[in-house]
Every structure is written in structure tokens, then in C-alpha cells.
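Lab notebook, bench 4. The sequencing result for the construct came back, and we need a structural model before the next group meeting so we can plan mutations. Quick request posted to the team channel:

Model the 3D structure of this chain.
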Amino acid sequence: MIDNPATTDFGFRTVPRAAKTALVGQVFASVAPRYDVMNDLMSLGIHRLWKRRFVTLLNPRPAVRLLDLAGGTGDISLAWQAAGGGPVLLCDISPAMIEVARRRAVARAALSGLSFVVADAERLPLPDRCTHTVSIAFGLRNCTDKAAVLAEARRVLRPGGRFFCLEFSRLEIAALMPLYEAWSFRMLPALGRVVAADAASYRYLAESIRTFPDAETLADMLGKAGFARVGVERLSGGIAAIHSGWRL
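Done. Here's the predicted structure in C-alpha cell form:
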């Protein structure tokens, strides 16, 4: 993690904080058309199981409103609706990703109850205490000021509301680390080059996983943001983790 307030990480590079949002925007504008295909290839389809578990923990109900931060191509929002959840607002900083989500919703006749907003999760254009549940799946590591995202998530939650984060974490099985490293830094850029004609963006995505806080550090960040009863559920040997916290 970079302590200099003027700089931050962009993968393994150190960049001015003011530049990261635009750089991340370029990555997702590039990968949006093939993002869902690449997710399946990158994770060998396991991301679907992680997201299924994530949505189960979200506990969708008709009277519950969801804010889906960094909602990307709509996996969580659409699964929430399919499971019987209430109104959902999909928020993402990338118009290209939101357009993919919109097309997916149209194809599934799932636009009813689904709204979209292009916005930075660090500065949400939403009133205080306006939603019951906030989710962010594989998006927090791409944010410049992660503490600001957590603070905004708590601000827009109603008392008694809950925040959930699904994100890559630290593999805890040492024997698998060489294979995991080879997959991340050799195969992912190669797949990105072949499937999405963009090796650099997928190299960044692999690097961003390594610079993201481990599960214990992220849990501590939730506590410092004011969330109570913080919980952590590790997935697939620690490759990913679900963090949760309540606004009391």
C-alpha cells in the first residue's frame, strides 16, 4: 500500500492519485465488450459460484432496496432481481460497462425495478440513509480512495442496513502459490491478448489483486469506517473473500 497522499497504486505502478480514476476508466472501457467471457476464462468459471454465494448472503427480498456499487455488467444486480430482491440501483464509473449491463437487462426483460447511474463510488450523488443494502463485487480494489468508498457506503445505508464486499484476497494454500502466480501473470495477459486484444489491461487486473489489502486489513478498514459486527468469509482457499458489516 502507498502511504504518500499524492500517489496511489495502479497495479504495480505508482501514479498520481488524480490520474488513477482515468486510468481505471480506460481499462474498463477497453475490456467491457469481452468482460464476461474473460471472467469465465480467468477464474475457470469459479467466479459464478462466488457470486452465487454473495447474492445468497445479500438475502434478496421484495421490500429491500439494493445499491450495487461498481456494478459493472450487471451480474449482481440481475441475480438480485432473479432471486426476488426489490429495486436495485446499479452504479458504475464506466459508461461502457453500464451499457453492457443495460443490454443484458433488456435481453432478459429485467429492466423493471432496475436503475443505472454513472458515478464514482467515492462521491455518490445520493442522499443519506437512502438504501437498505450496499454491495460491491470485484470493484473496491480499483477505487483510488477505498476508505472514502466505505464511508460513502455507510452514509447511504439506513440504520440496520448492511454492506457486503466480494473481492479477491490472499491465497492461503502455500503449495498452490507458484501455480497461482503463473496463472495470474502469464496466462491472464495472454488470454487478454487473444480474447480481448488487450494484454495490458489484464496485466493490471492481476497486479491490482496483489496490491489490494488482505482480509484482516480490509476488515479493520470496515471497522474504522464505522461498520459494526464485521464478518469475513473466505472462498476457495482465500483467493476471494466476502466482507460484511452493519450500520447500526
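The chain has one domain: 7-246.
Will bring this to the meeting.
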